[in-house]
Amino acid sequence: MYNKTIASTQHGINTPYGANTPHRYPTKTSTASDLLSVVDQLYPTGRAWNMPENGLLSALHSALNISFLRLIEDSAAVINNNIPDNELFEENDCDLWEYRLGLISNPTLSLTERRSLIFNKMGYPNNIKARQSASHIQHQLNQSGFNVGVYENAFYDAFGNRFYKLPSDIIAGGLTSTQHGWTTQHGGGTQHGSGGYEVIANSLQEGESYNVGGLSKLWSTFFIAGPDSIYDTAIIPSIRKTEFREQVLKLKPAHTVAFVFITH
Fold first, then answer.
1. DSSP string, 130-146
2. Threshold 0.70, pTM exceeds
3. Strand 262-263 to strand 234-235: parallel, antiparallel, or no bridges (unpaired)?
4. Are 41 and 12 in contact, with CB atoms under 8 Å apart?
5. End-to-end CA distance of the chain
6. What is the spatial order of strands in the sheet that 221-225 belongs to?
7. Dihedral in degrees, nearest 10, Cα atoms 39, 40, 45, 48
């Protein structure tokens, strides 16, 4: 009985025919001579199909094989340059896909971090209600390299009644005052009213002012603070603050407002 090995082909000498015999597909590392030897096995064994070395038939197949190898290389390049999951996805590919996907291009990030951001954006779910949850928004921000926590504006008293809090209530409850530390930048876009928080509602620019319409409308707000507690301040590198605001604007439902406790 014939035993199939890695050297078997569907039309090789002494090889049984049939769908159960494995094909040997050329790989990216194949050469024109490799393909020529495969072609030689596929022709019938009669004298009319003889393919002498350096003959016309051999030259024809050599030319076709070169074209086939170019196709293999080009196909691999197209895949590698379109899916950021490999080392061949280079900086120019990152620049192109950040432009296509509307991402802020930040050359200070490592190539691995930029690939991760692009890959995450490509796989972002669409039209799924679950993506509106605080946990999903937090996960996406964490995946993008922002070490923050996202918290619903939902608190309960001893009787189980739900109530809302203002940013000033969070600060009064023990928010660490790292926004006023020695290395903190106090640019004109940082809001220090009511205790030093930022608002992200509709604008990419810092210093946004937004009125949610009174205490009864606080159901449409949420908080972004430290990863471990709502009473901790998150740290966002100043060079990524615009990128962070853009990410929040894209992730949050359009009718909601984020109260953000961060330092740069």
1. GGGSHHHHHHHHHHTT-
2. no
3. parallel
4. yes
5. 73
6. 149-152, 221-225, 257-260, 198-200
7. 90
What six digits make up the tokens of 62? 């050599």
Task: Say which residues have a Cβ less than 8 Å from residue 203's Cβ, sequence separation at least 6.
Answer: none
Per residue in 95-112, pLDDT (tens digit) is 999 988 888 888 899 999
What are the structure tokens assigned to 142, written together?
A: 């964490």
In this prediction, residue 193 carries a pLDDT of 36
- Decide if pLDDT at 194 tops 60: no
Exposed e or buried b for every residue in 220-241, given b needs 16+ CB within 10 A?
Answer: ebbbbbbeeebebbbebeeebb
- The answer to whether 31 and 73 have CB atoms below 8 angstroms apart is no
User: What is the Cα–Cα distance from 225 to 67, expressed in whole angstroms?
Assistant: 57
Residues 6 or more apart in contact with residue 192 via CB below 8 angstroms: 186
